[in-house]
Design goal:
The chain is an alpha/beta fold and about 230 residues long. It has six helices and ten strands; from the N terminus they run E-H-E-E-E-E-H-E-E-H-E-H-E-H-E-H.
Length: about 230
């Protein structure tokens, strides 16, 4: 039986899933990550809170894959993201069509920008789950598909300008999804990503601080809606 692991970085991103859960197990800590079994409608899933950043995300995903078995796990990167595309708005939910590591630069060795040596240039999600997420119709939420990036820096205005030049295909950027995607690739596991835009890469964190709770709730509502249709 496939285990769906919803991975978020922060307590604010875990809270809307816990609030919507009919049941939740006691938390189990594996390394830095906190695991909880939760029941969302008719779906039983694992909610993993990883901590912020690529290393924490990769460690949490690895722990989940070892605990639940890579052949039977789908990793879902959920939570918040910064909006990069010109037409993206705060509150939009982005479902990843591909994921790139924006911090990787091994062009000196013949790799493309964003490609970790020995890894694909981009990571493709599980099509069935990505399509279910993209098909979600939740009142008041605009869901769009697009390329997602992730790296170790919180993206503010100056970095956003460079990323738009270097990766013009990106709709959003966060600090975990590429690590989740690469870990899934390394283990032959499936993944998908569903992140809500909390900010438009402003000069400081003020916009993020204002909208993080709303963005986390929007991402969770779309994931929960997709799960309901997949398990009905």
């Amino acid at each position: 039986m496939t285990a769906i692991v919803i991975q978020v970085a922060m307590p604010e991103e875990a809270e809307p899933f816990l609030a919507a859960a009919r049941e939740a197990s006691d938390p189990v800590t594996i390394g830095r990550a906190v695991h909880r079994g939760i029941v969302l409608g008719d779906a039983t899933v694992v909610l993993v809170e990883s901590g912020v950043g690529m290393v924490n995300a990769a460690a949490a995903a690895t722990g989940a894959l070892h605990r639940y078995g890579p052949d039977d796990v789908v990793l879902v990167s959920a939570g918040s993201a910064g909006g990069l595309a010109a037409d993206v708005r705060v509150g939009d939910v982005v479902v990843g069509t591909e994921v790139v590591n924006v911090a990787a630069d091994a062009r000196a060795f013949g790799y493309v920008l964003g490609q970790v040596p020995g890894m694909p240039a981009t990571y493709a999600p599980d099509q069935a789950l990505a399509q279910a997420l993209a098909a979600s119709r939740v009142d008041g939420i605009r869901v769009r598909e697009g390329a997602m990036g992730a790296g170790e820096e919180f993206v503010t205005e100056q970095l956003a300008h460079r990323l738009r030049d270097d990766f013009p295909q990106l709709v959003s950027v966060d600090m975990e999804t590429a690590a989740v995607a690469q870990t899934a690739h390394n283990y032959g596991a499936r993944f998908a990503a569903c992140r809500a835009v909390s900010d438009l890469c402003a000069p400081d964190s003020t916009e993020f601080d204002t909208h993080i709770d709303d963005a986390a709730g929007r991402s969770a509502r779309v994931v929960i809606d997709a799960l309901a249709r997949l398990t009905s």
